[in-house]
Specification:
This protein is of the alpha+beta class. The chain is built from 17 helices and nine strands. It starts with about 40 loop residues before the first strand and ends in a 23-residue tail after the last helix.
Amino acid sequence: MPCYIYILTATIPASPKPLIHIVSAANSKMTDIITDLEITFGLELEFFILYPEVRLLESVFPYTGKSPAGFALHQLIEEQGLSVIFLEEDSYHVDSEYTAWRVTRDNHELRDEEEDAVPAGYRVEAVELVSRKFRLGHDASQQELQAVMQVFGQMERAGCRLVTNIETGFHVHVGNGDLGFPLGTVKNIYSMATAFERCFDALHTTHRIQHGRNIEPMNPSNPPSFFFYNGTNEDRYLLTWLDDIERYKTLGTFLKHFDCARGEFVNFTNGKSSNINFDNLLEQRPFEILPPTTIEFRQHAGTLDVDEICAWILTVTNLVAWSHHVDYEYLDSFVEAKVFDTDFRMLQLLDILEVHPHAKAHFAQRLNLQDDAALRHAQVEIASASKGPFYTLVRGMEKARYTRSSARTMAAAIEGKLQDGLYGYLGPDVETLYPELTSGDDDSDDGVASQTSEELDRELLELCELSLGESPENSFEDMTMQED
């Protein structure tokens, strides 16, 4: 599979037609005016490092803290020439302008079955890697991300293993230089996320396709539907939800939308409970000093796949740029025309947002119900661990990931969410979003992925003609050797 990392040089999309800026008189409900747009972004990667205890501790001597793997990662990134900070505990007081990468300990944990599969003599450390702030299209983001990926490869060749699981996330912060965003942009972004929640869900694994009535309030990626279902307005009509968004007159009142006001969720939710977090736009808020004026996209599951990382960055940055430029009246007519159109899916939305063709091609492969890209990914990962100590762990983790990420499984989850009314009422004519799941248009009997555990095991273990490679033989001390 080709690597599309260079697509981060792409520029922001042009303004949609009609070319009327969002702060024009056409949107008279605006309460603040910010006309400039300089898209900036930063990313947060949550993952685990499994490392050979003795060799790692020797390699980072005399470090004696709680995060030897994080410290080693920091050293290697620094040797790539990148500015990087190491913190055992994250702090917004350090480099509050995000001019450097930062490595810090995280609090995620392996699941019991994963912990049981960690080989003897190895330890596990949860790590969060946060990038510096980049300017989209004007910074060395792709070169720096390439350098970080090379470090990951160095660590794995030296006997470590870097993994993600259901507990980890991949977050993207999108900013407008140091200016922040006007209320109109914020409302447009959330309107698009609400109207086309079904489309955005298609890019995510099933555990991130949350059901609005059946999830925990402190879940870190609750969808827009959650806050409407658990708010004060009991109307379930999707267009009413969109009208509610437009009624907000200030950013402060808009953010109260995320404080669910009834039932068991009272006072338990905030921006970090949402898959789009706008809290960072407030001038003053608890717990943080001089925080970034960004919008944080939190829905994506943890990943170290560079193509997936780049494609999602381009998707959310284009969503923000498009929402900033679009005229409200145009947006209103566009949503009304497409929200009930079941043929309008994520690939069509990517076209509207002018997302880079390479990113769209990446997602098109993922969304193809007849071409199981998720299975191929699992096979590659299992093959890479087949002759090393991590085989049992990786095999179990990839099997679990595949059950959450195959195109058919995700389509079935979206269909189930529709049938439960969790996208809001779309009218009597919208009965299905994926008729091909039950129409017999494919080779399966019922159209829905229904493999038994044994069948899934067998499929995952059929590694095609992939080379299984060799067990890692490099010493940990050789990690810092430059590639030829």
